[in-house]
Amino acid sequence: MTEPGVTEPQVATSRFVRLYGERPRHLVVLLACFALTAYTVLRLADDPALTRIVVWFVGCAVVWDLVLAPAFALADRALRPLGRSRRSWPGGVSPLNHVRVPGLLSALLLLVWAPLVLQRSEDVYRSTSGLGQDVFLGRWLLVSAVLFGVSGVLYAVAVVRRSRRG
Amino acid sequence: MTTSHASTPGPVRSGPGGPFDPRTWRSPLRGPWLTSVLALVLLVGLPVLIVTGMLSYAAYDPGLGGSNEQTPARGLLGFFLFTWPTSPSWLYRVNQGTHVLLGLALIPVVLAKLWSVAPKLFAWPPVASPAKALERLSILMLVGSTLFLIVTGVMNIQYDYAWGFSFYTGHFYAAWVFVAAFGAHVALKLPTVVRSLRSRSFAAEMAVSTRDTEPEPPDPHGLVAIDPAEPTMSRRGALAVVGGSSLTLFALSIGQSVDPLRPTALLSPRGQSYGDGPNDFQVNTTFSEIGVEESELGAAWRLRLLGPDGTVELRREELLAMAMITEELPIACVEGWSTSQLWTGVRLRELAALVGGADADSVFVESLQRGGVFSTTTLSDRQLRADKTLLALKVNGVDLSLDHGFPARMIIPAAPGVRNTKWVSVLDFRSPV
């Protein structure tokens, strides 16, 4: 059966690849990964928190992949008309990225600091630090306004430059 | 030039349509090179988070038990633990500031990386071989643990505990799942990353304008769009947006770890000012929350020392009459914020000597605080003997305020903030039986 120049281990490897889909190294790496994960999960086997942790673990992946990422994509798609027909914009400069970038940054800041901005943890925050969370909504709006403002100024500069050149 | 390879998309397998149809994914920027650039940033950044995270865990000296031990079932996962050092005094401040600030700054990179490989989530058929099935499971662990660590970390520093489990438990064990999945992912994908990065020059790519941006050549991973849209942004622009987002998060938070920059920390939990008096700095647990009457901290207060030679009780005036030293030391919270102040008090080992506890093995510290996980803590022998470990009575030249632990609080160099017990009532110098 063995072709000349092909050793037995090579035959065994190619049969393994046909059945498994990758070289043996691939399986070894993943088995090591699953072994460490299994050991970690078993540490929590008696912990009543395990179920909640698993729910949050899977929930984080699902909410990002199936809710937040599509929401960002749809919001971005809604801005698409700003990128079309360049000639109809002042100086032929599309405002798309000048809305998209500060919008993305503002949304990201809200996503990260939502508990502060939405005052979700006012009671614990106050009893811990002695201060309130009421300042954060204003601060987020201020930072967002600055981002959009700077972006608007950059847009105006681009338009002026382009019209002078053209 | 438009898409020369769009005419040769290869066989489009019939899937359920929608996101499972590869033609849905139209960004001309997606491709192995862009994904690999983001991967390289994470390959450098994430190990720093792993190391600083594990060090932060060790900094609690979990082996001493009690409130130090927040994850008693850790088993071999605590194999690396060691007695936490007491110098340099900024050790924990820098470690934890790095962990939290870098963690925040890497959020946009992680999200961009997930965006860049999103078509693979909807690959059809979902499982082409046993190898692919196992790999997808490991990717679920990788993405799940990464986002779980971001979400629990980000919520914890904002005091939003909606998960209903201990932050320490969740963050610690998820970190080990992350270590497993990240290690496997790097082992399997590093060759692809290296090959992709070599496929084009970074400098040359950074010179390409939006108009001249073209899709990467068709790839076996299914990242490159087979029906790409017109580019609205160059790769340079996309990377600038990611980098700019990281920089924005960093710039709005660095001030909560660097005292002179505090007013710049507009969006971060501990950027607010308390005023400019000697006690006006960041408070962790206010006096009004500890269930103690102010009268218990006045003339009635006694510090009880327990040791091999018996018990000694001291009034605050007696403590003030002892040899006082003054040290500038930081309070550095696991949440990443920190502040450095000038503390005046008695060396802990001088108090130990009063009850024959100078050679003690550990010190059990009790607060008058009622309830609260960290109302007691255990200090190591190293912390007991450190020159800078103080029972502080004053800060910045004046008596401690009630919120900062009047009549006396612990200040331990290089230790996590919660171990600097406030409203101290008992110091128990323990030796092996």
Model description:
With 166 residues, chain A is mainly α. Chain A has 3 domains: 1-43, no CATH class; 47-80; 84-166. In chain A, 75% of the residues lie in helices and 0% in strands. Chain A has 6 helices and no strands. Chain A has helices at residues 8-20, 24-43, 50-79, 96-117, 122-129, 135-165. In chain A, helix 4 (96-117) runs antiparallel to helix 6 (135-165). Chain A is flat, with a radius of gyration of 27 Å. Chain A starts with 7 loop residues before the first helix and ends with a helix. In chain A, 19% of the residues are buried. The mean pLDDT of chain A is 93. By secondary structure, chain B is α+β, with helices and mostly antiparallel strands. Chain B has 2 domains: 13-251, no CATH class; 287-430, Sulfite Oxidase, Chain A, domain 2, CATH 3.90.420.10. In chain B, helix 1 (32-59) packs antiparallel against helix 2 (91-116), helix 2 (91-116) runs antiparallel to helix 7 (235-251) and helix 4 (130-156) crosses helix 5.
